[in-house]
């Protein structure tokens, strides 16, 4: 057997084995619950900007970006801009690889690949830092509610210029808001690409875990995903990513567009 194929099959069996290990999955949820009060996700940055993400999820996103090769990544929720930098740097690497393979010089100014970030409140110090970053030319930001009609219209106009679109939702985590985002932006996802809904882990936390937040178990991104999928069979949850990562803020949140 071809050694590359053999290794790939071994990896797939590893992932399937993790999917069957219910005790290990439960342990992973306990670990996530216990680490959360320490704000573990706040400890990481990407190219100088705080990312507030689990490293496992970033690695999974990198794999998807390499596989899908998107022209446009849409992100709701900007915060400090670390996720924007991550996506922009991945798109820059795609451009570099394309240039190497084609034998052409890399000119970042002519790249069409872009990250579009949306946030209801882009704080001045974060905007200044993002706009001063070397990757700023690959990033466009919109300030406004991600579910406001004018914002949705603007995003759809921008997306109409791109063929391969990937979406990441990470703003207000209430069921109503995330469901509205899914209805607004999931249709922009190209076939074979993903709509990634972050912080679905809220559903798996204790009832009193978010006393000062409008979301919690029963009212969160995962319940919005479940509701959305009832009437949108063009998307399905990619459970293999959940099983591969185990430690993730997005269980049931990696939605692949299959049709």
From TrEMBL:
Methyltransferase found in the keyword field: yes
Organism name: Herminiimonas contaminans
Keyword Secreted appears in the UniProt entry: no
Signal peptide, first to last residue: none
Domain of life: Bacteria
Keywords linked to the UniProt accession: Methyltransferase, Transferase
Record InterPro entries: RNMT_CmcI, SAM-dependent_MTases_sf
Protein name (record): Cephalosporin hydroxylase family protein
Gene3D superfamilies: Vaccinia Virus protein VP39
Pfam families, sorted: RMNT_CmcI
């Amino acid at each position: 057997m071809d050694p590359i194929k053999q290794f790939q099959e071994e990896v797939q069996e590893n992932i399937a084995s993790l999917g069957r290990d219910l005790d290990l999955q439960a342990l992973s949820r306990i670990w996530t619950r216990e680490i959360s009060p320490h704000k573990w996700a706040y400890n990481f940055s990407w190219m100088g900007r705080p990312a507030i993400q689990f490293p496992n999820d970033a690695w999974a996103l990198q794999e998807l970006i390499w596989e899908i090769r998107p022209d446009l990544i849409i992100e709701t929720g900007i915060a400090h801009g670390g996720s924007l930098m991550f996506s922009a740097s991945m798109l820059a690497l795609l451009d570099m690889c394309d240039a190497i393979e084609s034998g052409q010089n890399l000119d970042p100014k002519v790249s069409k690949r872009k990250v579009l970030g949306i946030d209801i409140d882009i704080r001045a110090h974060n905007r200044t830092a993002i706009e001063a970053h070397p990757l700023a030319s690959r990033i466009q930001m919109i300030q406004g509610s991600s579910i406001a009609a004018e914002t949705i219209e603007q995003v759809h106009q921008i997306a109409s210029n791109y063929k391969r679109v990937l979406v990441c939702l990470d703003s207000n985590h209430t069921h109503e808001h995330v469901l509205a985002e899914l209805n607004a932006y999931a249709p922009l996802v190209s076939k074979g690409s993903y709509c990634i809904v972050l912080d679905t882990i809220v559903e798996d936390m204790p009832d009193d875990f978010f006393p000062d937040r409008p979301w919690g178990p029963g009212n969160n991104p995962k319940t919005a995903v479940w509701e959305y999928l009832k009437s949108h069979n063009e998307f399905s949850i990619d459970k293999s990513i959940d099983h591969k990562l185990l430690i993730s803020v997005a269980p049931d949140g990696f939605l692949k567009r299959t049709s």
